Known about the structure:
Layout: H1 2-5, E1 14-17, H2 23-33, E2 39-46, H3 48-54, E3 57-61, H4 64-77, E4 80-81, E5 85-86, H5 96-125, H6 130-140, H7 148-156, H8 181-192, H9 197-209, H10 212-221, H11 233-262, H12 268-274, H13 285-295, H14 306-313, H15 316-329, H16 334-346, H17 353-364
Parallel strand pairs: 1-2
Antiparallel strand pairs: 2-3, 4-5
Amino acid sequence: VINSLLPLLQPGDIIIDGGNSFYTDTIRRVTQVAPTGIHFMGMGVSGGEEGARRGPALMPGGDENAYQHIQPILQAIAAKVHGNEPCVAYMGKDGAGHYVKMVHNGIEYAIMQLISEVYDILKRGTGASNEQMHAYFNEWNNGKLKSYLIEITAAIFKQSDTLTNAALLDVILDKAGSKGTGKWTSQGAMNHGVAIPVIDAAVALRTISSYKTQRTQAAQLYPSRVGKVHLTVNEIADALFAAIILCYAQGLSLIATASEQLNMQVPLHDAVKVWRGGCIIRSTLLEDFYQAYQRNPMLQNILLDAPLAAQLQAHIPALRKVIAEAITAGIPVMGLYNALGYFDNYTLERMPTNMIQAQRDYFGAHTYQRTDRDGIFHTQWS
Length: 382
């Protein structure tokens, strides 16, 4: 496409890729057109069908001077928050716009997985009806969990099937599709050495959901004995709230690390600012994250922000209880569990990985460092 456009363009013209392109492809295209004097900008766009009608969240990256030329156009079409504040900002150099959008999609995968697990706990663990779950999610969307995904989940419970008059949700096949952006996020995190276990779990579980025939066979070999959970609706809501914070923390830490390693110079406060409206992961929590980055623009992980830490700490007991009850009842909660596992390990001053280093040195002479002195050491174990 670029090659067909180049003969029609002049130096200073701008090509904008508003699709879900992989960020390395965007970097390559920026380099490809640079000698011609033409600017290539990769722009993440989020909002779905509603965003097309009412304005999306826009995440452009590339040459900053080129962005200044298109900024008025983008501000005009972007979603607005707080009256007339446009949900668009310059995300950084080269492939930054598409990188931020990729991670946005990874966070989207994870939050959707967390919500589906809470739905399962409510449905099978407490016996809640669709009508009751509609009421719960509707109430949650008027409080600290207020977000687009909570809002549409409440609406889904009320939708009837035009073919059977049953609840539409109950006749939808349990095989989740994907476009691949969640997988890209997991791969990117591996490449940059960043742990994002909730997003990884969400990607893996969509894959497992595709094993419908195998799962049906396995269910006959291993009959389910799902029990009831002893939880209040408020405890479940608090657990979801904590897990969602941890999900955002993982995604944002990936952007921070990748931005540094790839020299993209992503302004994280602008990323969360843009996500506050128009996009699929918009949430009132993003205001708290925005304030955290205002307090410290170089924050590597939002879990290190004291006000957010206090907020999260108050909800961790509910997350522990919900996970324990769900596991005891036989309800899978891989997303919730990975959120808690991340928290417990990230906040642990001394992990048991000293054992792993000892094992590595034992069988492979990979050496180790010590806690009591500097240097690299090796032991003859046997």
